[in-house]
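INFO  loader      accepted 1 record
INFO  loader      residues=69
INFO  predictor   begin
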Amino acid sequence: MKAALRLRLVSHGPLHLHPHRLVLPASAAIQRRTFLAQVIGVIANPFETLRQLDDSRKLLEQTRQVYQV
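INFO  predictor   done
INFO  writer      dumping tokens
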């Protein structure tokens, strides 16, 4: 069974028991999981996150210098 179909079947089953809850489509559920995984990754590896931010800052500065001709 495909992952998207599996998520859809799982998400629609229990949510029908709670009429006041919002039923999310499979893509929204995947985005939500991805966001939570990113948050957990930042909490688990703060130094790696800082290194990535520093690398991004350096690349942005280099790009700005190239286009300030």
